[in-house]
Amino acid sequence: MEKVLITGATGFLGLHTAQRLIGEGAQVTGLGRSLAQGRRLTEKGVRFVPCDLAHATNLTEVFRGHDLVIHCAALASPWGRYAEFYSANVTATENVLKATREAGVKRLVHVSTPSIYIDHSNRLNVHEDEPLPQRAINYYAGTKRLAEERVDLAAREGLPVVSIRPQGIIGPGDSAIFPRIMRMARKKILPIIGDGENWIDLTYVDNVVEALLLAMRAPALANGRKYNITNGEPVQLYVLLKSVFDELGFSYREKRIPFRRAYRVAGAMELACRYLLQGREPLLTRYTVCALGLSRTLNIDAARRDLNYKPIVDMPEAVRRLTAYLRTES
Fold first, then answer.
1. Other CB atoms closer than 10 Å to residue 153's CB: what's the count?
2. Is the pTM for the entire model greater than 0.90?
3. Structural domain count of the chain
4. Which residues are catalytic?
5. 274 Cβ partners below 8 Å, 6+ apart?
6. Which domain holds residue 133?
């Protein structure tokens, strides 16, 4: 029986991962800050440990006795205070690496992000080893990049760690992507940034969980490496959004905004919110403009080759499941 510890187990990806492992008969410990979600995990057979990774003092003892650790915890948001992102994404990762090493865990699987690739240009078929932008698009991408640097150092020092970079995770329980888009839809406006023909990669949550389990059990050659994870089926973003809105019966009008204008407006909003409005989140950020207005697809050949990764839910089925979930939430 595998003994697996999951950080961020009360979050979107962590919950799905815990449920999959419990279903496979693993012994699972889940760390997180949400007591309500912790109770849900306990009901499903997970040993729940309330924990703030950035400030925990007994992580080594909590990690001890586990075969594997999956580090899902992160602060993922297009906006916020740098200190909070640094604490949740960098300090927490440093503490996880230290506890993993001291507890003698056999392997750590680290969840990173392709947001570190984002700049203000279209990027297609991006490989893991392509140069990163000189400057991160926001604090989330910047601190996740720093966290990767800490992981790389630990790997060079001999820690068995595999990293994945899942792109645009969607599915039941998503609190980041479609909830924000649905708020726009309820205002009966679909803002189209740029020419509206941009291609993106998305990943259904079950496929990310599949990649995590494959990374857990991958041969030693995967140690120290990073893997892009997507559904492997790029879609045109606005074609997808229109089909989902039509299926849900939303009426809307399109509002087209040139990319450069949207980027400039978002930059001005960020400055105003950061310095004049006490850090309040702007209606539009440069990160969001790039995510909605540019093409970004990833190459997943390395994951297919080294992890034997094959998406288990294709995009048509993913969209069907997503639409059914959104219908219950609307």
1. 12
2. yes
3. 1
4. 140
5. none
6. 3-170+202-231+298-312
d(CA 141, CA 119): 10
Helical segments of the chain, H only: 12-23, 35-43, 59-63, 82-85, 92-103, 139-156, 178-186, 205-216, 237-248, 259-275, 286-293, 301-302, 315-329
Return d(Cα 2, Cα 25) in angstroms, integer.
Answer: 8
Contact 208, 166 (CB under 8 A): yes
pLDDT (tens place) for every residue of the chain, 330 residues total? 799 999 999 999 999 999 999 999 999 999 999 999 999 999 999 999 999 999 998 999 999 999 999 999 999 998 999 999 999 999 999 999 999 999 999 999 999 999 999 998 999 999 999 999 999 999 999 999 999 999 999 999 999 999 999 999 999 888 777 777 777 777 788 889 999 999 999 999 999 999 999 999 999 999 999 999 999 999 999 999 988 888 888 888 888 999 999 999 999 999 999 888 888 999 889 999 999 999 999 999 999 999 999 999 999 999 999 888 888 876
CA–CA gap between residue 300 and residue 228 (Å, rounded): 5
222 lies in some domain? yes
Q: Which tokens belong to 135?
A: 């400057």
